Amino acid sequence: MSTVMRDTQDPTSTPAVKQNKTRTVAIGEARPQWWLYLTLGVGLVVMVTPFVWMALSSLKPEAEIRANPPTWWPQTFTLENFTELFTRLDFPQFFTNSAVVAVFVTLGNLVFCSMLGYAFAKIDFWGRAWLFRIVLGTMMIPGIVMLVPLFVLVSRLGLVDTYAGLILPFLAGPFGVFLMRQFISALPDELIDAGRIDGAGEFRIFAQIILPLCKPALATLGILTFLGSWNNFLWPLVVASSEDKYTLPVALALYSVGQNENNYGLMLAGAVAVVAPVVLVFLILQKHIIQGIATTGIK
Amino acid sequence: MATSTAARVPAPADSPGRGAAPVRRSTPLRRRRSIAAWGFAAPFVLLFLVFTAWPVISSLLMSVTDIKSRDLQNPFNVNFVGLDNFATVLADPLFWQAARNTGYFVVVGVPVVMFVSLMVALALNTGITRLSGFFRVGYFMPVVTSIVAVAVVWRFLLKDDNGIINVVLGWFGIDGPNWLGDPNWSMPAMILMAVWRSMGTLIVIFLAGLQGVPASLHEAAALDGANAVQRLRLITVPIMRPTLLFGAVLTGIGYLQLFEEPLVMTNGGGPLNSTLSVSLYIYRQFGFGNYGIASAMSYLLFLAIVLLTLLQFRLLTERDPRPRRKARQTTEREGSAR
Amino acid sequence: MRKPLRVTVATLAAATTLIALTSCGRSDDAPAEDMSAAPVAEGEATGTITVWAMGTEGEKLGEFADAFSAENPDATVEVTAIPWDAAHDKIATAIAADQTPDVSMVGTTWMGEFASTGALDPTPDTIDGTSFFPGAWGTTIVNDVAYGMPWYVETRVLYTNTAAAEAAGVSPSPATWDDLKTSTAAIQAAGADYGITLQAGQQGAWQTFMPFAWQAGAQILDDEGNITLDTPEVVDALTYYQSFFTDGVAPVDVPVGTLESSLIAGEFGAMVSGPWHIGILEEAGYADFTLSPLPAGEQLASFIGGSNLAVFKNAENRDGAWKFIEWLSQPDTQAAWYEATSDLPSVPEAWETGTLATDPQLAIFGTQLETAVAPPSIPNWEQIATVIDTELEKVTRSGLDPQEAATAIQQQAEAIGTGL
C-alpha cells in the first residue's frame, strides 16, 4: 500500500508530512485511492467552475460578458471594471467598515457562544432545557419579520448610523451556541471531571481544558460568522443612513444594480473584490479545522 | 480516579435541565453550578433578550393584527384581528403551492446535501493526503461566492440548448431538459444549485466533527478486521452524531427558508410559480407592506421548521443513547460502587 | 423614531398603551386631513437638505447640486446613495422608525404605498403640475392629492433589427397591431429564430403587457375607482399578446443577460424596451437598430416609468427641500440633468433644447412619452401587478383562455383591493 502511495507522493514533501500520511492511510482505506482523487477532482472542477468564470469575466468588457454564446477566456482583457469600481467607490472606507463589523461580530460570537455552548453541553443547571429551546427556536424564525421591530428598537437606542448599531444585533447568535454545544457535547466528560477533581472552577475548566480542544469548532464558527457578517446586506443598508457607514456589499450594490438594467462588469468585479478577503480568512483558518483533537484529547 | 470522580460528580445529569434537584445531597452543589452556568450564559442572554427576543415578540404581535406599511405612522389604525391572518394565509392557494414547492425542495435537498457532504468530508479527512488543503478551499468556494455573480454563471450553465450541463448530458445520450423554463425541472435545478452552494459549509462542519473521532479507535477496529463501511457505521457516525445532528438541523432550517436561489435564478419564483418558496412569498408580502400577513406566514414557516427540527432530533438522537448512556452507566456504577 | 415602537406598543397590553397615548395626537395626520399643502417660505433656501437617491442618480446628484448651492449660498445638499436592490425596504423601515431624510427618490409604483402611510408631504403650489408629461405627473397623485415631483421618466418603445426587417421586406416601424404581427412573422420567416421577444410572465411582465391593454382602450380603474381588469379591452389585449406565443413568433423563455447579443445577431427581430438599451447596444458596437413608438391598437400608449422625488412630512428642512425640488423641476435643470445622467426629463419643455431636441432616437421617446400611461398610484398596485404577471404567464405559457385569465385577474385584484 505504501509503495503506491509513494508513487503519488511529491518528492519534495517533508518527512513529517510523510509520516502523517502513512498514519492516515493506515486508518483509512487500505489502498491508494486514485479513484478518490479522480472523483474529488471532478467534483472540484464542478465546484470551482462558476467561480473561475466569475473571476475571468470580471476581466472582460461589458459587451463580452453579455455575448451569446458566452466566452470562457476573455477575448479582450481589461481592468476597466476594477478601475471603475475603485475610482467610483471609497473602497478603503467601505472595506474598513466591513472589516470592523465582521471582526467584532466574529469575536463576540466566539466568546459568548462558546461560553453558553459549554454551559449547555456540560453543566446541568436550572433552566437549561428551556433556555436551549428558546435560543434554538429563534434561529428558526425567518429574519425578515424582525427587520422592522429591530430597526425601531435600534433607532430608539440611538444607534442608527453607528458601528454599535451594525454590530450589537449580531454579537450573540443562536447558530454559534448550537454549534459549540454540539461540538462540546462530543468531548468526553472525563476531561471535565478530571478538572473538577483537580479543584478547578468552572471557568478555569472552560478556559484551560475545553477551549483549547475547541479549535476546530471555533475555527468553523469563526469562518461562518465572519462570512455571514461580511456578506450581510439588508441590515447594514437599513442601519447606515450615511455612506460613511456602508459596508462593502452595500456599497457594491450601489452602482451595479440599476432600476432597469444591471451592470454585470461592475457586479462581477465587485463580487471578486468581496470574495477575495474571505478566501484569505478561510485559508488562514482552515488549517485550524484540521488540527486534530484526537491526539490531544484523552486516549 | 473513579471514586473521587463520583464524589465530585454526584447524581450526574439523569434528566437534563430539570429544575427540581433529584438527588438530595447534590442540591447545594447543583445550585452553585447553576450560578456558574448562568454566569456563562449572562452576556449572551443579555444581548439575546434585547436584540432578538424583543423583536420576536413584536413580530409575533404583528401577526395577530391587520398592520400594513401604511399604518407605520398611525399605529391607532391597527386592529387586533386574532387569527384572521393565519386563516387568510391558509386559505390562499398560492401559499399552499409555495409550501409544496418548499417541501419538495427540503425533502429531496437535505438528504442529498447531507450525504454528499459527509462523503466528501470523509474523503478529505481520511482518504486524501496530498492537496487536501487545496481541495478544502475548492469545495468551500461556492459558499463565499456572491449569489448574484453565481446566478449569472448558473443561468449559462443551465441553458436549454447550449448550456454546459445539457451539453455534458448530451455526451451520454441524454436530452437535457429546459431546466429553468420547464416547471417540472425548475425545482431540481434549484436543488442542484443549493446543494452546490451549501456543501462547503457542511463539509467544514463535518471536518471539524471528524476531529473528535479518535484515530486509535479506527486503528483498533481495523486490527479487529472491521472494513471501512463497518467502521463508518460503528465508530464514525455514532461519535459524529452531535455534529451530524447539527448539520441536519442547520441544513433543514436553511433549506426550509429557500429564498435566494429562486429570487435570482427564476425571476422570483417562475416558471408558473413552480419555484415560489414560502420565504419568497413572505418577502413578497413584506414588500407589499402586508406586515400582518407576512408575520403570520413567517410563524407558520417557523412551525414547520420546529417540527422538522424535532423530527431530526428524534431521528438522530433517539437511536443514540450509546455514548451518553455509556458515560452515565459508568458514573452510576462508580456511584454505587462507592 | 417613536412611532413604530408605538405600533408594537399599541398592540401590546394596556399598561404600555399609556406611553403611546401620551404622544398620539401628533400622529393623527391621516392623509385625507391635510390635502391642502402648506405653503413654502419665500426666498433662498437655507440649511442642510438631506437627500436619498438610488444608483447612478445617487452618485451624480451630489455634484450636480453644487449649482443649487451656488444659487443658494446658505444651503447645502447632502446626498446619500442607496442601492436600488433594497431601497424599498430601507424607505419603509425609515418611515417606521421616523428616520427619514428630508427628500427621497421614490420609484413611481411605490408612491401609493408610501403616500398612504402619511409620511409624505403634499406638493405645494410652487410646483406646477401642468409643466410635466401628464403620465408622469399622474404618478404623484394618490387619492387626488399630489405628493412630490416626477424627477425623470422612461418609457418603452419598439427596438427592431433594421437589417432583419429589410431582409424580410417589411418596415422596421410597424404602425398598427396588424403591422406588428405581420412584420414580426415575416422577420421570423426570413430566418430569425423569433420575430420578437415579449416578456412571457414573471416579475415585471405587466410593464410589457399593460401598454397593449391601454392601446386596446382598457383602464385599470374606472372613473369611480373600481378595478376594471376583465373588460373586453383587456381580453382583446391578452388574446393579441397570446397570439405571439401560440404562433411561435415570440419565445416563452427570454434569455437574461444575452438579450442584446441575440438582437444584434438577428436571432430576434425586435424587442420592447426602455431608453437604457440604446447605450447597451451602442456599447456592444451595434448601431443598426430602428426605434419606433409602440404600434397603435385603438389608440397609442406605452408604459411610463421613472422616479419621483418626495419630501417627508417630518423633514427637518421642509422649505429647503421643496425649493431644491422646484429647482430640479426647472426645464434648464432638467436638460442639464439629462446631460449628466441620460435620465429623460419629465418636463416636455426640457426636450426643446440640446441633444434632446436633435437626436432622432431620443425624439421617439419624446413622442412616446406624450401618450405613455402610468398605472394608478394606489397602495396595492404592486400586489395587483403580481397577479397580472402570474396570470399572464399562464396565458403565454400554458395557453390559458384570455377571458378566463381576465376573470381571474379581476377576482384576485378585487380581493386585494386598491388599498385606498
Automatic annotation (TrEMBL), chain B:
<keyword id="KW-0813">Transport</keyword>
<keyword id="KW-0812">Transmembrane</keyword>
<feature type="region of interest" description="Disordered">
    <location>
        <begin position="1"/>
        <end position="25"/>
    </location>
</feature>
<feature type="transmembrane region" description="Helical">
    <location>
        <begin position="239"/>
        <end position="258"/>
    </location>
</feature>
<feature type="transmembrane region" description="Helical">
    <location>
        <begin position="35"/>
        <end position="57"/>
    </location>
</feature>
<feature type="domain" description="ABC transmembrane type-1">
    <location>
        <begin position="99"/>
        <end position="312"/>
    </location>
</feature>
<dbReference type="GO" id="GO:0005886">
    <property type="term" value="C:plasma membrane"/>
</dbReference>
<feature type="transmembrane region" description="Helical">
    <location>
        <begin position="189"/>
        <end position="210"/>
    </location>
</feature>
<dbReference type="InterPro" id="IPR035906">
    <property type="entry name" value="MetI-like_sf"/>
</dbReference>
<comment type="similarity">
    <text>Belongs to the binding-protein-dependent transport system permease family.</text>
</comment>
<dbReference type="InterPro" id="IPR000515">
    <property type="entry name" value="MetI-like"/>
</dbReference>
<feature type="transmembrane region" description="Helical">
    <location>
        <begin position="103"/>
        <end position="125"/>
    </location>
</feature>
<dbReference type="GO" id="GO:0055085">
    <property type="term" value="P:transmembrane transport"/>
</dbReference>
<protein>
    <submittedName>
        <fullName>Sugar ABC transporter permease</fullName>
    </submittedName>
</protein>
<dbReference type="InterPro" id="IPR051393">
    <property type="entry name" value="ABC_transporter_permease"/>
</dbReference>
<dbReference type="Pfam" id="PF00528">
    <property type="entry name" value="BPD_transp_1"/>
</dbReference>
<feature type="transmembrane region" description="Helical">
    <location>
        <begin position="137"/>
        <end position="157"/>
    </location>
</feature>
<feature type="transmembrane region" description="Helical">
    <location>
        <begin position="296"/>
        <end position="316"/>
    </location>
</feature>
<keyword id="KW-0472">Membrane</keyword>
<keyword id="KW-1003">Cell membrane</keyword>
<keyword id="KW-1133">Transmembrane helix</keyword>
TrEMBL record, chain C:
<keyword id="KW-0732">Signal</keyword>
<dbReference type="GO" id="GO:0015768">
    <property type="term" value="P:maltose transport"/>
</dbReference>
<dbReference type="Pfam" id="PF01547">
    <property type="entry name" value="SBP_bac_1"/>
</dbReference>
<dbReference type="GO" id="GO:0055052">
    <property type="term" value="C:ATP-binding cassette (ABC) transporter complex, substrate-binding subunit-containing"/>
</dbReference>
<dbReference type="InterPro" id="IPR006059">
    <property type="entry name" value="SBP"/>
</dbReference>
<comment type="similarity">
    <text>Belongs to the bacterial solute-binding protein 1 family.</text>
</comment>
<protein>
    <submittedName>
        <fullName>Sugar ABC transporter substrate-binding protein</fullName>
    </submittedName>
</protein>
<dbReference type="GO" id="GO:1901982">
    <property type="term" value="F:maltose binding"/>
</dbReference>
<keyword id="KW-0813">Transport</keyword>
<feature type="signal peptide">
    <location>
        <begin position="1"/>
        <end position="22"/>
    </location>
</feature>
<dbReference type="GO" id="GO:0042956">
    <property type="term" value="P:maltodextrin transmembrane transport"/>
</dbReference>
